[in-house]
Amino acid sequence: MDPAFLVIQGLNGLASASSLFLIASGLTLVFGVTRIVNFAHGSLTMLGAYAAALLAPLAMASLGKPLGFWTAIAVAAIAVGLLGVLIEIVLLRRIYRAPELFQLLATFALVLIIQDLVILTIGPQDVLGPRAPGLTGFVEIFGRRFPLYELFLIAVGPIVLGLLWLLLTRTRFGILVRAATQDREMVGALGVDQARLFTGTLFLGAFLAGLGGALQIPRAPANTEMDLALIAEAFVVTVIGGMGSVTGAFLAAILIGVLQAYGILIFPEITLVVVFLLMAIVLVVRPYGLLGKPEPIGAGPGAAFALTLRPWTGVENALAILGILALAAAPLLLDAYGVTVATEAVILALVAFSLHLIIGVGGLVSFGHAAWFGLGAYGAALAVKSLSIPMEAALALAPLVAGLGAALFGAFVVRLSGIYLAMLTLAVAQILYAVAFQWVEVTGGDNGIVGVWPADWASGRIVYFYLVLALAGAAILALRRIMYAPFGYALRAARDSALRAEAIGIAVRRTRWLAFALSGAAAGLAGGLWTFLKGAIDPTVLSIPVSVDALAMLLLGGAQTVIGPIVGAGLLHMMEDQTMPLTDYWRLVLGLVLLAIVLLAPRGVVGAIEALREARRDETRAAKGAPP
Amino acid sequence: MSAGTTPLLVVEGLDAAYGRARVLFDVSLEIAAGEVVALMGRNGAGKSTTLKAVLGLVPAKARRLTFLDRSIAGLAPHRIARLGLGWVPEERRIFTELTVAENLEVGRRPAPDGRAPWTPERLFALFPNLAEMRGRRADAMSGGEQQMLAIARTLMGNPSLVLLDEPSEGLAPVIVEQMADAVRAMKQEGIAVLLSEQTAAFAAAVSDRAYGLARGEIRASGTLDAVSAALAV
C-alpha cells in the first residue's frame, strides 16, 4: 500500500481521536466526581453541533467571518455547559444516591426527551454548518491534499488535554474535583459544598461535550442520530481509558481513532468489531481500563432491583392461573389488531422476564439485552432465508444462536461488575447493531430481511398467538423454575455478596455466566417469535431503545417481584400502543414515563402494591398489639 | 469539666442505626472549649459511629445536638464542618492520588475571626516529616505519615473541635508518641479534641477525662481510670 496514503489515513484517525477525546473527557470527568454515567452526554454534543450550525451563519453575518464563526462555537459550548448545570440541578441532584441502573435510565430519558424536542423545534432534517473561515484550505503531505481543518482538530485534542491538566492540578477547583473523584464523602466532611462542586463539574463536562459537537460542524452536518452514535463510542473510550481518568480517555481516543482509520482499510464493513476486540482485550488484561483504578464502581443494581423470593400464596396462584386463562381466551375477545398487540405483549414479556433473571436475580445490570433478542431474530430470519430451513427448526435455532452469542460475550461480561458491566453490555449490543447495519450482503443492511413468514399451519393470527403463548409461556415458567431452584439461590447469593458466595463454594463467575447465557437464549427465542410475527426484521431489533424498553418494562412492573416484569411488559406495551397513534413524540412520552418511574415509583407498579400490602399487614399487627 | 466552661458540643440522647440494626442507644456527652476528651470502648462499641453521627455522616436522631449553641441536627456534613467541627476518620481517607500539599489545600477553610489560620508552614513545623514530602503523592507515604497528613488536613479547616477517630491504631510506638505530641499541640492552640480509643495508654497520655462506651451505650464517665475500670468489668 502507498505509504503516503497510510500517513494520511493515520492523520484522519488522529483528527477523529481529537473529537472523540473532547466528548469522552467530559463524560469521564462528570463520572469521576458524580459517579453518574451520563447517557445524555452524547445528546449534549448533538445540541452543541446544532447550536453552532444554527448560530454560526447569523454570527458570521453580523460580526464578520472569523470572529462570528469562533464566537458561535464558544457561545454554543457555553450554552450547552449551562444546560448541563440545569440538568444537574433539576435531575441529577435527586439521583446521586440511586442505584446506577436508575441513573442510566434517568439520563437515557433525557436522551429521548432531547431527541424529540430537537425534532419538534428544529425539525428532523440535517443542519449543515459553515466551514471554518481561514481553515478551508488544504496542506500537501507527501503529495496528497489534507484538509487544514483536520490538522487544526488534531491540535485541539492535546491543547484541551493540556488545559484540563492545568485546571486539574493548578486550581483549587481542579484539586477539589480530583479529591472528590476519589472520596466524595471525605471532601464534604472537610467543609466543601458538594452541590456547588458537582454543578461546576457538570458545567465543565457539558461545555466539553458542546465544544466537541460545535467543532464538528465544518466536517459533518448536525443530525438527530448523532447522540446515540457518539455516546456509544464515548462509552467505549472511557471504559478503555479507565472511568474517571482524563489522560486515559486521551490515550483510548487515540487508540480507537487510529485503529478505526486503519481498520476501515482491512474490514471496511465491520470497523466497530475491531474497536470491540480492542475493548475486550483491554478489559481482560486490565478490567478497570488503561488508567482506571481497581475499585468497584457501583456495587450492583441495589436493593430496588433485588428480587425477593417467597412462595406464592393461594390467592396469587389463583391470580396467575386466572391471568393465563384470560390470555388464552384473549383471541375470543379481541379483534385482529388486538390479537397482534397481545402477541407482541407476550413476546415482550418473555424479553423482560429473561432480563429479570440476570438483573433481579443475578444483580448484573445489562444495558444491552437487545443483543440477544436481535441475535435470535436475525438467527431465525437468516436460517429461513439463507438456509431455507422450516419455521420450526428456525425457532429452535433462535435461542441456540442467541444463547451461544450470550455465552461467548458473557465470558467477558461476567468478569466485570456494576457500571463497567452495564457499559460493556451496551457496547456489545451496539457492535452487533453495527454489524447488522454494515454487513449488507448477509443482513441486508438497513433494509433488513423481509418475507420471513410462519409455516402454513401457523400463519393464522390466532394460531400464531397460541404458538407464541405456548412457547413464551413455557420459557417463562422454565425461567421461574430456575429462579426457585438451587441455581437461582446461588445466583442470588452471588448478587448479595460475591465474596461470601465464593467462600461457601459457589463458583460465582460460572454461575453468572450460565445465567447470562440462559437469559440470552430466552431473549433469543423471543426474537425468533418476533421475526415470524412481523415477517421482516431490520437492525432496530438490536438498537438501544429495545434494551431500554426491556429495562423499562422490568422497572415499571417492579423488579423485586417475580411477576413484575410480565405486568410491566403488558402495561408499557399497552401504553405504547395507545400513545403512538396519537402522537409522533412517543420518545418524549417514554422519556417522561422513565423519569416518573425513577423519581416517583422506584419499586414499580407491582412493588408499590406489595408495599401497600406490607403496610396494611404491619397496621393489622400493630392493631392487635403484636410485635412487628 | 477540667478545661473550659462553655460547652462546645452537646450531644443528648443520640440514637443511630444502620438499616434495621441499631448501633447507638441514647448516647449523651459534652465537650467544652479546649478540653481533650477520650471516648473509650472496644471494637464495635459504637465509637466511630458516634463521631460520624455528630458530623451527620450516618443517619441519627438526637434529643439535642448542638455545636457552639447551634443545632446541627440534620445539617449537611459540609455545613457542620464549616462551623468548625473537624473529623479525622479512622481509615484516614487521605486522597492518595493527590500530593501532600494538595491534600492540605482540600482541607483549607478560612479561620474564624481573630484567629491566626493554620498554614502549611505552621503544620510542617508541627509535623516535620511532612515538610520534606510536600510534593509527594500521598500513596507513597507510610501509615504514620498518612495519619499525620490526615490530622494536618483537618487542621487546615481551622476547627475549634476535632473528632479524632483511633489516632494510635496500628502505628509504631515512635509514631504514637508523635500523635500524642500533636494532640497536646492542638490543646495548646485552644482546640478541643474528642478522641476515640481502645487502648488506655494513649488516652491517658493526652486526655483530661473520658466517656466509656459499650454496645452503643455510655456506661461510664469521669476520670480515665474510673472509665477504664468500669469498662473492664
From TrEMBL, chain A:
Residue ranges annotated as transmembrane are 6-32, 44-63, 69-92, 104-123, 148-168, 197-217, 229-255, 262-285, 317-334, 346-373, 393-414, 421-440, 460-479, 513-533, 553-573, 585-606
Keywords recorded for this protein, A-Z: Amino-acid transport, Cell membrane, Membrane, Transmembrane, Transmembrane helix, Transport
One matching Pfam family is BPD_transp_2
Q: Which GO terms describe its biological process?
A: amino acid transport
Q: Which GO terms describe its molecular function?
A: branched-chain amino acid transmembrane transporter activity
Q: Where in or outside the cell? A: Cell membrane
As for membrane topology, the entry says: Multi-pass membrane protein
> At the top level of its lineage, which domain of life is listed?
Bacteria
Cellular component per GO? plasma membrane
Residue stretches in coiled coil: none
What protein family is recorded?
A: Belongs to the binding-protein-dependent transport system permease family. LivHM subfamily.
- From the Swiss-Prot or TrEMBL record, give the protein name: Branched-chain amino acid ABC transporter permease
Q: What organism, scientifically named, is this protein from?
A: Salinarimonas ramus
UniProtKB/TrEMBL annotation, chain B:
Instruction: Give any Pfam family that matches.
Output: ABC_tran
For this UniProt record, the keywords arranged alphabetically read as follows: Amino-acid transport, ATP-binding, Nucleotide-binding, Transport
Q: Does the keyword Transmembrane helix apply?
A: no
Domain (ABC transporter): give its ranges.
9-233
**PROSITE patterns of this UniProt entry?**
ABC_TRANSPORTER_1 (PS00211), ABC_TRANSPORTER_2 (PS50893)
SMART domains under this entry?
AAA
Decide whether keyword Ribosomal protein is in the record.
no
Q: Which domain of life is it from?
A: Bacteria
Give this protein's Gene Ontology molecular function annotations: ATP binding; ATP hydrolysis activity; branched-chain amino acid transmembrane transporter activity
Q: Name one GO biological process term.
A: L-amino acid transport
Q: Entry's InterPro entries?
A: AAA+_ATPase (IPR003593), ABC_transporter-like_ATP-bd (IPR003439), ABC_transporter-like_CS (IPR017871), BCAA_Transport_ATP-bd_LivF (IPR052156), P-loop_NTPase (IPR027417)
User: What family is reported?
Assistant: Belongs to the ABC transporter superfamily.
Protein known as: ABC transporter ATP-binding protein
Q: Which source organism does the UniProt entry give?
A: Salinarimonas ramus
Give the lineage.
Answer: Bacteria, Pseudomonadati, Pseudomonadota, Alphaproteobacteria, Hyphomicrobiales
